[in-house]
């Protein structure tokens, strides 16, 4: 405790507030929407994903017309950058090019040792359900 007091006593007040806030802030999960919904560019999205907000802030990763082409390296680098803050508490909302969805799931598996969550739309109930994936589960 004495060491902690000495370290904090040498800080400026703004730095102290920033450190306290980072220790006490509520880390709400995020929902990573892989690609914008079809029709978004025309301001007429084909479907509404706002129901996923109850699981966290929606972060759209890629524009509607993104595709994985013959040289996937640049897109993989971009996806790794976009997912750098992903945690096992966050969710994936699978939308878009199936090849990109596969790459995103692979990157997340690598980051979380094969455990991640996704949101599945139920047409009958008209709601999202969380699904926990563990690729190492027997």
Protein traits:
disordered N terminus, 5 strands, alpha/beta, 138 residues, globular, five-stranded mixed β-sheet, Rossmann fold
Describe it for me?
With 138 residues, this protein is of the alpha/beta class. The protein has one domain: Rossmann fold, CATH 3.40.50. Helix content is 33%, strand content 22%. It has 4 helices and 5 strands; from the N terminus they run H-H-E-E-H-E-H-E-E. A 5-stranded mixed sheet has the order 2-1-3-4-5, covered by helices on one side. Strand 3, helix 4 and strand 4 form a beta-alpha-beta unit.
Helix and strand arrangement:
Layout: H1 2-9, H2 13-24, E1 30-35, E2 57-62, H3 73-82, E3 91-93, H4 98-112, E4 115-122, E5 127-134
Parallel strand pairs: 1-2, 1-3, 3-4
Antiparallel strand pairs: 4-5
């Amino acid at each position: 405790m004495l060491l902690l007091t000495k370290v904090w006593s040498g800080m400026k007040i703004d730095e102290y507030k920033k450190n306290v806030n980072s220790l006490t802030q509520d880390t709400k999960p995020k929902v990573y929407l892989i690609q914008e919904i079809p029709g978004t560019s025309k301001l007429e999205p084909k479907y509404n994903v706002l129901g996923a907000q109850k699981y966290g802030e929606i972060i759209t990763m890629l524009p509607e017309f993104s595709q994985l082409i013959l040289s996937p390296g640049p897109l993989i680098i971009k996806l790794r950058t976009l997912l750098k803050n992903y945690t096992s508490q966050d969710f994936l909302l699978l939308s878009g090019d199936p090849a990109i969805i596969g790459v995103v799931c692979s990157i997340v598996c690598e980051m979380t040792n094969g455990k991640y969550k996704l949101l599945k739309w139920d047409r009958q109930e008209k709601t999202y359900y969380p699904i926990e994936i563990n690729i190492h589960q027997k």
